[in-house]
Predict the structure.
Amino acid sequence: MSSTISSSGTFDDLYAHLLTLRSPLLPPGKATDPKLTDKISSLYIHPTLEAAFHLLNCDLPSAHFLVRHMQAAPMFEAMYLHGILHRIEGDYDNARAWYGNVADTEVFKKNWGSKEKGLEYIEKVEALNKKREGDKEALAKESVDEIKTVINHCVEKFGSGQVQDATVAWVQPEEEHRKMGQEMVSGGKGFRDF
């Protein structure tokens, strides 16, 4: 594993470095390199790209902060990243729900072609995590490839340059989803304990 990145801190340099880190496959416990959180945020790239970079660093809290601001249409890329995040953290039911929500979108189809193939991948990761069954190396490669496909799609759609006001990407969830999210954070109904 590489441990240094270019001092220029460009999008391409940081992306190349993130691809040298451990694969975001199973619940990581903490970010692979906590020092990268600030470097990623300091790029001021589109929030979907920033969230994907945080996922490559296994920095789930930073990625989750961003995708929660984009968890409704038309931000399907962020919704998909939300599903990937839950897959990585081991919340497989939540991951399946997010994958189902975006199964008909262009970005999801670029990866899986169908909802069934995406859900099958979640099943394989879950079997690896819970039963120690499966090819960890192949699944890890597939995890990185999945995130890379989302990143490439987002670069095509949003570009890799700086975004002056990231709030333009934020969407307001419908009232039902807003209440559900609030209960998950403060009502003790979520997967994580805050």
Notes: The chain has a mean pLDDT of 89. The first helix runs from residue 11 to 18. The two ends are 31 Å apart (CA to CA).
